[in-house]
Design goal:
Length: about 220
């Protein structure tokens, strides 16, 4: 009797221990990230920093047309792959224009374009993105400083929020901290930590708090819910 029930117990034990499949976030540097869902739907945001772009994309999201965000040529698209970008941010062929306030689904992803602006970034030409992938909500702030519209994200239950921290084109880590307090994401992460380099550990470290996760170029994070 005991022997017969053992395989059952082992199976139950495994199913309890195995984590549910989670989408991954890989950081390349500057504002460039790759997101891969549990079903291998591949998304790149703001391709620019060197990294492994070998996986063809289902979706490429560009926040604005500055040269350190819009190198869509680094990415090869799958046959049905889509590039989403504000008007004028990438060459006009083969991309879907987006503006603040747009919300739509592509494949298994829900996309919402949100406000991103400061003295170096015109509001009409820039967006941030809120993505829902595998029920995980990821906010990529784009290039921005603190804007009051960030508070509108708080009720949405953002899981992971990426904030620029270079303190030159965008806000610094201390201001990003105030953004994190507005957005109230479970986890806040520093990107775009240098105006010149791909990454500046010192500036990134100025985003502090119990919700902050370290993120260095080349690192891949399983985005657990
Ligand atoms: Zn910019």
């Amino acid at each position: 009797m005991l022997l017969h029930s053992l395989p059952f117990l082992v199976l139950v034990g495994l199913s309890v221990l195995a984590a549910p499949p989670a989408p991954t976030l890989t950081y390349f540097g500057r504002a460039s990230v790759k997101v891969v869902t549990a079903d291998s739907y591949v998304i790149y945001i703001d391709p620019y920093a060197p990294g492994d772009y070998s996986q063809p994309a289902d979706l490429v999201l560009v926040t604005h047309g500055h040269g350190d965000h819009n190198k869509v040529g680094l990415v090869s698209l799958k046959p049905n792959g889509v590039v989403v970008a504000p008007v004028g941010a990438v060459p006009p062929a083969n991309h879907r224009p987006v503006k603040e306030g747009d919300a739509f689904s592509i494949g298994p992803v829900q996309v919402r374009a949100v406000a991103a602006y400061n003295k170096n970034h015109r509001r009409a030409e820039c967006v941030g993105y809120l993505l829902t992938v595998d029920k995980v909500k990821l906010y990529h702030a784009g290039d921005t400083s603190l804007v009051p519209e960030m508070a509108e994200l708080a009720p949405l239950g953002v899981d992971y929020a990426l904030f620029p921290t270079d303190g030159f084109y965008n806000m610094d880590g201390a201001e990003a901290r105030r953004c994190a307090d507005l957005v109230k994401a479970r986890h806040a992460l520093a990107i775009h930590s240098s105006p010149k380099e791909m990454y500046d550990a010192g500036r990134a470290a100025l985003l502090q708090g119990p919700d902050v996760l370290p993120l260095a170029p080349g690192q891949t994070l399983a985005m657990a819910r």
